[in-house]
Recover the amino acids of this structure.
């Protein structure tokens, strides 16, 4: 009996301590109505009513308010740009080197500039793919500048040579673009190249989507590696969000209404109205409908009474 009464009044929201006190005073066989009256007399309130009585700490903000609020972020984002939150980088070494050498010289310094740029941002996983035959002495038809940089990057476990060999005096070269796209896809990283890899896009639909969404193009301006601030276009993510695993959402900024006080959209207007912060935002059409409904409703009541 005691347990059933405890369960009953606990479901009503009363505390167990208050229920035990009342049952000790009135006895275990007391009627539910008597227990309820005693609880009310003691001043005990259900938890739901107590929560309603407490003042709410939430602040109401007027619609269209442009007050300064902290930027919204993805769940789990702590704001620090650590290496764990940055995507792996896979660099097309041949494309970068030839771009820095104006498509005439294989400039290894261009590869170093690109690697240094990503290191300064905090990226720890950086891989550069270059064909193995680039280790050979340069020739007139394929000049190479600053070739010693390739050896230094190889010692740092940054540069990876794709296989190549000679068969009967002819060089057999593996397709290094396939290595680049495959590693970047498996690591869920970013491809740094000005090549579109159209042949590989046609081979695999998953690679096609990945290349379209994760290809980072670049330019060299006065020996300065410069990727674009909007890698996927004007309406796409910023460069920081593009290179991050957990992008930060931008703050929402309200644009003032071009019609100002002459706007007739009311609460349907998507722009900011500073003069309507504390007013009921009804459109002109809605206000007219509200005014016409009152007399029409009164006329119907009179007709009913007359009938």
């Amino acid at each position: 009996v005691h347990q059933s009464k405890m369960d009953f009044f606990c479901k009503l929201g009363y505390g167990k301590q208050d229920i035990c006190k009342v049952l000790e005073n009135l006895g275990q066989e007391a009627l539910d109505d008597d227990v309820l009256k005693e609880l009310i007399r003691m001043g005990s309130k259900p938890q739901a009513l107590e929560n309603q009585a407490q003042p709410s700490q939430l602040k109401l903000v007027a619609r269209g308010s442009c007050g300064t609020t902290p930027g919204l972020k993805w769940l789990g984002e702590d704001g620090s740009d650590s290496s764990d939150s940055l995507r792996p980088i896979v660099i097309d070494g041949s494309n970068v080197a030839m771009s820095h050498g104006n498509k005439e010289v294989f400039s290894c310094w261009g590869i170093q500039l690109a690697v240094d740029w990503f290191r300064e941002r905090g990226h720890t996983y950086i891989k550069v793919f270059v064909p193995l035959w680039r280790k050979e002495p340069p020739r007139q038809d394929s000049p190479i500048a600053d070739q010693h940089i390739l050896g230094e990057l190889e010692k740092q476990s940054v540069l990876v040579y794709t296989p190549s060999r000679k068969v009967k005096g002819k060089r057999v070269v593996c397709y290094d673009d396939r290595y680049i796209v495959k590693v970047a896809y498996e690591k869920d990283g970013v491809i740094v190249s000005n090549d579109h890899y159209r042949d590989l896009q046609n081979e695999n639909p998953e690679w096609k989507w990945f290349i379209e969404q994760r290809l980072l193009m670049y330019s060299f301006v006065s020996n300065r590696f410069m990727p674009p601030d909007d890698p996927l276009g004007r309406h796409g993510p910023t460069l920081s969000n593009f290179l991050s695993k957990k992008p930060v959402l931008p703050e929402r900024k309200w644009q003032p209404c071009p019609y100002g006080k002459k706007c007739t959209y009311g609460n349907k207007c998507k722009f900011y109205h500073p003069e309507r912060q504390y007013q009921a935002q009804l459109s002109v059409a809605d206000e007219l409908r509200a005014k016409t409904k009152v007399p029409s409703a009164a006329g119907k009541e009179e007709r009913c009474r007359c009938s």
Observations:
- The mean pLDDT is 77.
- Residues 89-243 form a domain with the Rossmann fold fold (CATH 3.40.50.11980).
- The first strand starts at residue 89 and ends at 92.
